[in-house]
Amino acid sequence: MTELLRSLDDEPDTPSTVDVRRAIATARRTRRVRRGVTGAGAAVVTVAASLAGFTLTRPTAAPPPPVLATSAPQPSVAAAPTVTRCAISRLPVPDKAPMALVTAADPTGAWIAGRIYPKSGGYQAVLWHDGTVAKVMLPGDLEEALRDVNSSGTAVGWSYTEDGPVPYAYRNGEITKLAASGSALGINDAGRIVGDDDEGNAVVWESVGAKPSRLPAPSSAKTVQARAIDLDGTVVGSLDLSIPYIWLPDGTHRRMPMPEIDGKPAAIAQAFDIRNGWVTGMASTKSFKDSRGSAPVHAVRWNLRTGESELVGELQYPADAVNAYGWQVGNDRKGYPVLITGEKPIRLPGLAKHRADGTATIASTLSDDGRIIAGQSDDTTNTIQAVMWRCR
Amino acid sequence: MRDGAEEEYVEYVTARVPVLRRLAYVLTGDGHRADDLVQQTITTLYLKWQRARAADNLDAYVRTMLIRGYVDEKRLAWSKVRLFRHLPEPEPVEETGAEDRTILRAALRRVPRQQRAVLVLRFFYDLPVDEVAGILGCTAGTVKSHTSRGLATLRRLLPPRIEVPR
What we know:
The structure holds two protein chains of two kinds.
Chain A: H1 2-6, H2 20-52, E1 86-90, E2 99-105, E3 111-117, E4 124-129, E5 132-136, E6 144-149, E7 155-161, E8 164-171, E9 174-177, E10 183-187, E11 193-196, E12 202-205, E13 213-214, E14 224-229, E15 235-239, E16 243-247, E17 253-255, E18 260-261, E19 264-265, E20 268-275, E21 278-284, E22 297-303, E23 308-311, E24 321-322, E25 328-331, E26 337-340, E27 346-347, E28 361-366, E29 372-378, E30 384-391
Antiparallel strand pairs in A: 1-30, 2-3, 3-4, 4-5, 6-7, 7-8, 8-9, 10-11, 11-12, 12-13, 14-15, 15-16, 16-17, 18-19, 20-21, 21-22, 22-23, 24-25, 25-26, 26-27, 28-29, 29-30
Chain B: H1 3-28, H2 31-47, H3 49-52, H4 58-84, H5 100-110, H6 113-124, H7 129-136, H8 140-157
């Protein structure tokens, strides 16, 4: 595929109309107009800032915080179950939609969020529960996705408008707009939500009705991402897509340890998901900014109890989900979706043909008891379909 | 902008325009739209120059700007498409005896934009899934699904003799 696309590496055969001087002139005009507006905008921001406090407020009644390498969060589950095999089934879709996929699930696996691709075009967010599916009518008509759901069935996500993404929460048929712009990416069972403001800052909502407050981060970071939240309120993410970062429930925040690759610290790493003190993410020996990025991306798992991190050699890409036992789902080196429990990885069946690049079937969620996995799988016509696996 | 910085901008952009036009061309498949995209990107770059010039790798920074500009354009286009509640399936490219490159470019132009951006980043630039996710601001899962759908679309649009690897 690389060779095929590289054959297109040439300039357009039409004469260039790109004009650097015109770019400067247009930019100067834009800047003058923007300056006129910014004064008023800045005043509004200041008011909002003082209301929101811009500090990390402690969540009420949260379990004791995990502290890196000293103590552990309370495990939410008893001894690990044994799982040996998983069976696939299709999730029902409304309106006979031709395509669908899964974006998230709660820790019990009872609630599964996703989206369908209606025949008329575009995207429609949906929520599965008890074998039924409900459409989640988020405002906005461009693109939408539910990114997480908790065990009470509160789902969070974003919907794209002309001006960018807008964060929403959904529960029991009711939709709440969380802020004027940004994305909601994670929610825990206490109802605490994390996401971003679409301006490079990570934010947290203490509950669905609360105003967002910015998560503190070093001022050197241009892009702060908060990707997931644990049961005790611990949040993980990254700075500038390069430094794995953690915000603890006591209000402190810090870099996470860099994983080692071949005995040397990785150049970059990011934390994507967290569950019960287990964090999954990626690491690479080369910075994203080093041009063609030929260095491989490694799957990483951190254990917050010990402060240790390890590369997950079985996985071709970083894990797509992690559960309370630190089990992971992802695609193995041969592209098969697998459940990794610490024993021999368990391959998950797909609906149709397998592809070595790991795109035919993707497991996106994993329940705490390891028995329910949801994701997507290409059917015989190479069309993505929402699926779930029941494991025993 | 101080004079030194502006000179630096002009010097940098002038040297990079050919590379940016190549990228924009493979994304848009159309010379004029490619130039519009490059023009828009270097205009924004001027506004952000103070920050951009401090980037560790300016080329990667500008490439991301161009690709995000391209994908945003797609997001705007969605609203127009949705008005008609209809998204026609693209027609396969006709075998006209043209060079493979021309046919491939025509087929790629018919692949939905976000899928096309993912294909270009993953295979033209050899970028790993997570870096593509970072550039496009989506999840690795989305990148994987767009790759899969993009390749499937391309397979359907190309005549059988041009093989799209599995």
